[in-house]
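Hi R.,

As promised on Friday, here is the backbone we talked about, encoded as structure tokens. Could you run it through your design pipeline when you get a chance and send me back a sequence?
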């Protein structure tokens, strides 16, 4: 046992069981999402964007894993606080297990790009949870990891406080490609913790495709 375990003993966020933040039993109670087409939000096998829904610079598909409920919701909410690194690590391990056993549509030779947070908010939160989780996922999946591929240009009002059209406006031209990192047709998985409308993923995807990416998918823990 190290000092951190003594000072901050781990308890499952769902049932208080020792040694986990998300114990397998509580995670098992969270429903898995049904994959949808990110454009029309209707069911789609493996999360592919329907051929008829494809748009210029649009995502080729998107995969989410869990419903935003129970211990998944609790752990994602906790990620917003400092020192939640271990929760991030557990989520990453469960995600990789799920991807390896259930998901076959994501491009195999790929670069994981986490959705960037605006610098100021990142510092306030302590860390970019999508970057932390994404890094572990990339390592364990054998993907490349490129946290500086896309940068956020300016501060925006958090998406959850806005609706529909406002959300789109809020994100228009918020992200920019890091011009020092060439894409040359590379396959990309854009990663975020939660997908609400998919607008953020789509916007990051658009920037990447315009910058020369090939296939681009979205991946989120929850929806
Ligand atoms: Zn539990
Ligand atoms: Zn569709």
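Update: got your reply. Pasting your designed sequence below so it's all in one thread:
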């Amino acid at each position: 046992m190290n000092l951190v375990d003594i000072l901050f003993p781990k308890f499952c966020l769902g049932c208080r069981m020792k040694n986990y933040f998300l114990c397998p039993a509580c995670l098992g109670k969270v429903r898995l999402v049904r994959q949808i087409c990110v454009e029309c939000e209707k069911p789609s096998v493996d999360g592919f964007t329907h051929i008829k829904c494809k748009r210029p610079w649009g995502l080729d598909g998107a995969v989410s894993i869990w419903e935003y409920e129970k211990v998944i919701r609790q752990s994602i909410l906790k990620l917003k606080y400092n020192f939640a690194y271990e929760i991030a690590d557990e989520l990453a391990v469960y995600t990789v297990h799920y991807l390896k056993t259930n998901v076959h549509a994501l491009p195999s030779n790929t670069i994981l790009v986490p959705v960037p947070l605006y610098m100021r908010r990142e510092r306030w939160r302590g860390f970019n949870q999508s970057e932390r989780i994404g890094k572990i996922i990339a390592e364990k999946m054998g993907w490349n990891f490129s946290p500086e591929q896309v940068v956020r240009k300016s501060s925006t009002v958090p998406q959850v406080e806005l609706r529909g059209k406002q959300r789109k406006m809020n994100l228009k031209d918020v992200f920019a490609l890091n011009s020092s990192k060439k894409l040359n047709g590379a396959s990309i998985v854009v990663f975020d913790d939660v997908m609400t409308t998919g607008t953020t993923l789509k916007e990051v995807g658009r920037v990447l495709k315009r910058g020369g990416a090939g296939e681009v998918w979205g991946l989120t823990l929850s929806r």
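One thing I noticed while checking it: Helices lie at 3-7, 24-28, 70-78, 85-102, 119-125, 129-141, 164-171, 199-210.

Thanks again,
M.
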